[in-house]
Amino acid sequence: MELIDPTRLPGWLIPHSLAWYQQLGETEGAYLYPWNSIREEPNGESLFDREVMNMVKGRIALDVGCGHGEFALKSAREAKGIVGLDVTDKFVSKGLQSRKANVSFVVGNTKDGLPFASDTFDCAYIRKGPTSAYPNLQKVVRKGGEVLGLHPGESTGKELNALFPNLFTPHSGASVLQLLKDRLHMSGFAKTAIDFVETKEFLQSPLDVLKYRCFGQTPAIFEELQRENSDAVSCIFKEHATDQGLAITFSRYLVRVVV
Questions:
Q1: What residue segments make up the domains of the chain, in order of their start?
Q2: pLDDT digits 0-9 by tens, 140-153
């Protein structure tokens, strides 16, 4: 049975487009992965989170692409102050509902620059947020300050393309690594480094495969795929999964910068 290509269904939005983020904000109010999985430790995200917590201690930090503010609020336990910036107003509204005294949130699009005065922050981080912020961070982060970035790698979930043809398609477009190199080059930072961390993630059920593919899409698209593809996905999952689940690649780029 041929699997349905979800990008051809009415209402499909390009993942991580502005319209996709706005829809996710309106439907979920948060940037949270809906699928169940187990990740090998340490992985790119856990390493990044640890470094951020050390970097922000006693400092005023900018969280670029803060989403609904969950990580900003966690960082605030260590920081003197955190300012979260996100383009999606529904995410920012969610963050404001649980704001701490040393945390504030601002709506803004990094493609229009950063709405802060020079030398406002001691440090900054971008946790799966927009790479377009890098060229402007040199202005708002004090000289000698650190910037950390976390960005998904092209190889993330690469096994799914072969296991579930049509349902998943190979990564296309510009190389994430090259994009990061270009952004950092034009930013004029004093020091830059990019590390690549690749581990495994184990999806726990056939339903999680569909949730993985439909992240940020409408319930109608998920229901259509579940109705038409569920049996075929279940057969493929059972054939290739282990006791841990269905193994897929979990890759992240870690960016470390000194302004």
A1: 6-258
A2: 999 999 999 999 99
pLDDT tens digits for range 17-38: 999 999 999 999 999 999 999 9
Nearest-angstrom CA–CA distance, 84 and 99: 11
pLDDT at residue 165, rounded to an integer:
96
Domain 6-258 has CATH 3.40.50.150: yes
Whole-model pTM? 0.94
Q: How far is Cα 116 from Cα 95, in angstroms, rounded to an integer? A: 19
- Measured in whole angstroms, the distance separating CA 116 from the mean position of its chain's CA atoms is 23
- Whether 23 and 216 have beta carbons less than 8 Å apart is answered as yes
As a whole number of Å, the CA-based R_g of the chain is: 19
| One-letter amino acid of 35 | W
Number of C-beta neighbours around residue 130 at 10 A? 18
The Cα angle at residue 26 between residues 224 and 124, in degrees rounded to 5? 120
N-to-C CA span, the chain? 54
